[in-house]
Sequence to fold (734 residues):
Amino acid sequence: MKRIRLNILGIVQGVGFRPFIFNAANKFCLKGSVLNTNNGVVIEFEGNERNIKDAIEYIKTKAPKGADIENIIIEELEPKGYNKFLIKESKNTNINKISIVPDITTCEECKKELYDKKSRFYNYPFISCSSCGPRFTVLEDIPYDRANISMKDFPMCEECSNEYRNPSDRRYHAQTICCPKCGPILMSNDTKINIDDIVKYILEDKIVAIKGIGGYHLACDAKSDIAIKLLRERKKRPYKPFAVMMELEDVLKNCIVSEYEKEQLMSPKSPIILLKQKENSVISKNVNPKINTLGVMLPFSGMHIELIKRSGPLVMTSANESEQPIIKDEMKLKGLINIADEFVNHNRRITLGCDDSVIRCLDNKNIIVRRSRGFVPQGIKTNKSGPPILACGSDLKNTFCIFNNGYATPSQHMGDLMNKDNFDWYVENIQRFKKLLNINFEYVACDYHPGFQSKVYAQSLNLPIIEVQHHHAHIASVMVENNIKEDVIGVCFDGTGYGDDGNLWGGEFFIANAKEYKREHHFEYVSMPGNELAIKEPWRMGLGYLLNTFKTLPDIEFVNRFEKDAKIYQSIINKDNVFSKTSSVGRLFDAVSTILGLRDITTYEGQAAVELESIAKDSGDSYYFEFDNKIIYTKSIIEGIISDIKGGMKNEYISSKFHNTISQIILNTCEKINKTTGIKKVVLSGGVFQNLLLLQKSYNNLKSNRFEVYYNNVVPINDGGVSLGQILICIENI
Ligand code: ZN
Ligand code: ZN
Ligand code: FE
Fold:
């Protein structure tokens, strides 16, 4: 006979952990208790030693899907001779971050009930249990209890209430429990409707705004060219790819899916995964024009499961006007009146809006493009101590991040803060997080950029401010994820970020640690004709790079197309202070894309580079490039590309050769730095590395030359990850 105490840390509350432990105790004939505390779940097991061991193993391997066990602390105690196993009532004292859980996709057991005619949850769109259902997006206050979530609007019926109170039921203390008798319903224009009604709209090629978990989606038939064309016209979104929701068997038919990607699709987070699309895919080409990846997610709530089963693959795109916050309230729907034909609501309030998360997979690792539903508000363990900090993030693809008790908690995707509605949402959301985490900030961190709204906000807080260089923050975000303490070679390839010298950086090689950085090498500065306009109009960068390379512009199709502009810019481009200068590799990708005739003006961020990546057909060749001691020159690369164009080489080949060149530059530069410093750890970060072809080539190159290589897997590799890096740099500089 033995008695032990287990303290389980991590995401173990709000995921059905206590009923799971209760059943485990019965299974292994153990007595004792389980209790939720501020510091994780505390279990006492008393019984046969062998059984206790088996029970611990069972907990480690069979925990509910939404759980994430970080650590189990085991302590042996004197046996007490308990006679039963109890679920003790939690003490709702000061609650800390562990009590807030991300939304969890409908679990397998709930799915079974959804299909089971005899179940009282048969076909019920709002089915959930202790292990699944909305969490973050229904939360109004802490602790996570029925009274503090928007489900409080629905008093439980007797059956629900009995299950809620029964420790051996899988809905024991399921705060979102509800059924057709007592729970939310689907509605359209204030009348109750069924899933079949939605399917009918879809089959008529209508565009339907559907309220989901974290906000409204616009849905239409993913096989219908007509419906998608309509959606693009009405949403004024000519090219940006849409995500498609479909059942797993349809994903396998339409996309090339690795085992790992399949696991990610099926995870309780249910993110959108960007997959290689098959040639014979039946999804309309209007969904993702000119690119070879398709964003796919599985249905993640009872309503979506029921809908997709009947409708087949549906375009599911956030229902907002472009670059606006996701719509979560009926009141905001007015803006969609000219986009959607039908509106499907439900009467459960969404308290915190949250977009779908987006991921690409590389070598069994995640490259996060957007970290929102399913991930937020999961904290990241930092192994750092320090006062509570707010990091305000970057202005593009914003997330903010909160540091408290050693954990960094990034917000969901907030979007671009230049947009007023996004900025208002940002300020509101910071207040919500502050309240939910129950903290007062002592420091605030923000980007250097003098024009950033996030910086203006930081300054308004009247707290000590630590300003952080944008690319240093990118590199530091990887250091947090991997707990790297020593100096690294930081390779940051980005769209734009404000540099120490006032120029726009983005092709940077740093020697960096968590506290400071030194700029070792960078791409040469090139003028941006038209300044910021050049960010959305790659043809301007095309001219910028050509004018930087040639005295007389070459006779190619691109130059003929922009002959007039070329003449105008030729005379002024080299004059000082006319145009901003940039070392951004993102802009270099844009330039190559437009010079090849792929994309002159972008309609969404990164479009020119994405289309360039999409066409690459592998070749082993690369362009010649030149260095001097600090600077990597682009002239010979541009010359090489022009000579290939004139020589009639295909774009597919030139694109691949260009990708090879950039990854070769990364390797050579890292070798240079390694020679003088001995540093072997390389960190890759920045939006340019969303390009998997580039990331994979660079990674493989470095690896096979015995570098240790790290890149972001936990927060976005783009500007969505900046806030996490700001936290670390702030801690080190306080
Ligand atoms: Zn469930
Ligand atoms: Zn009920
Ligand atoms: Fe950036």
Remarks:
- DSSP finds 22 helices and 32 strands in the chain.
